[in-house]
Amino acid sequence: MITVREPATETVLTEIPAADRSLLDAAVARARESAPAWRALTPRARARALSDLAAALEQHVEELALLEARNAGKPIADARGEMEMVIDAFRYYSGAPERPLGETIPVAGGQAFTVREPLGVVGLITPWNFPLLIASWKLAPALAAGNAVVLKPAVLTPMTALRFEQLASEAGIPEGVVNVVVGAGSTVGQRLVEHPDVAKIAFTGSTEVGRQIAAAAAPTIKRVTLELGGKSPNIVFADADLQKAAAAAPAAVFGNAGQDCCARSRILVQREAIDEFMQELEQVVRSIRVGDPLDHSTQMGPLISAGQREAVSSFLNGEAPIAIRGSAPEGPGYWFPPTVLAPVDPHARAAREEIFGPIAVVIPFTDEADAIRIANDTIYGLSGSIWTRDGAKALRVAHALECGVLSINSNTSVRVATPFGGFKQSGYGRELGPHALDAYTEVKSIFFATS
Ligand code: NAD
Question: Looking at the whole model, is its pTM more than 0.90?
Answer without folding.
Answer: yes
